[in-house]
């Protein structure tokens, strides 16, 4: 694998499908929400295609409903998710914890930009024993605009005073890649999550890896 041509300072990570294997929990929660609210049936594949978007936007996309109705769906989703999200329900993908700790030890700034709520992110970071390695978190409640808009990346860059081309965005969906591309940063897709390699390429991923540990080879 070729290394980055330019030395970077900042690694911005997605969470769902990149760090944490949350797909089954998310899809189970979607299906239970649909049943609880008597919404039209949607396949697990259709629900999976919205992973990476904020929940309100995901429900609007799935059911063509207005924002107020989508917010009700989101609230029900959160209640069900909290019931299903027992300790150990979400595990890190192979090599995620070790790789993040190594990136941090090498002096890289490692952060997360996610469409998940901040509280949920903080809980997972603590559960994965990464509180000392993740230096900055942005959840859906921390920005006005969300993926694929570049605001989460731009806000992180501003926080650290880092240029766009000194950062790489790592994620598993086209929404992550488009966010990074629109911010002017390097992007790296992971093909083991919720998006396909073709989708990541089409979105403009600079690099695509099949194991999270390949990040260490990429950044050098």
Automatic annotation (TrEMBL):
GO molecular function: phosphoglycolate phosphatase activity
One GO biological process term: DNA repair
Pathway assignment: Organic acid metabolism; glycolate biosynthesis; glycolate from 2-phosphoglycolate: step 1/1
Catalytic activity: 2-phosphoglycolate + H2O = glycolate + phosphate
One Pfam family cited in the UniProt record for this chain: HAD_2
Highest taxon listed in the record's lineage: Bacteria
Enzyme Commission code(s) on record: 3.1.3.18
Protein family membership: Belongs to the HAD-like hydrolase superfamily. CbbY/CbbZ/Gph/YieH family.
NCBIfam families found in the cross-reference section: HAD-SF-IA-v1
Designated name of the protein: phosphoglycolate phosphatase
Organism, scientific name: Prevotella bivia DNF00320
Lineage: Bacteria, Pseudomonadati, Bacteroidota, Bacteroidia, Bacteroidales
């Amino acid at each position: 694998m070729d290394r980055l041509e330019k030395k970077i300072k900042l690694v911005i990570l997605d969470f769902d499908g990149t760090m944490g294997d949350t797909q089954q929990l998310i899809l189970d929660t979607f299906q239970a929400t649909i049943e609880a609210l008597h919404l039209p049936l949607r396949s697990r594949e259709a629900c999976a295609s919205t992973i990476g978007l904020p929940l309100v936007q995901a429900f609007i996309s799935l059911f063509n409903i207005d924002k107020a109705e989508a917010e009700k769906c989101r609230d029900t989703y959160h209640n069900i998710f909290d019931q299903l999200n027992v300790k150990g329900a979400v595990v890190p993908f192979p090599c995620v914890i070790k790789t993040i700790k190594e990136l941090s030890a090498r002096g890289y700034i490692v952060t997360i930009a996610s469409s998940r709520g901040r509280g949920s992110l903080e809980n997972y970071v603590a559960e994965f024993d990464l509180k000392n390695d993740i230096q900055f978190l942005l959840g859906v409640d921390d920005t006005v605009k969300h993926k694929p808009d570049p605001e989460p990346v731009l806000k992180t860059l501003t926080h650290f005073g880092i240029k766009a081309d000194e950062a790489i965005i790592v994620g598993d969906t086209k929404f992550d890649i488009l966010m990074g591309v629109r911010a002017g940063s390097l992007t790296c897709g992971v093909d083991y999550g919720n998006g396909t390699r073709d989708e990541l390429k089409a979105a403009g991923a600079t690099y695509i890896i099949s194991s999270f540990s390949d990040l260490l080879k990429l950044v050098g």
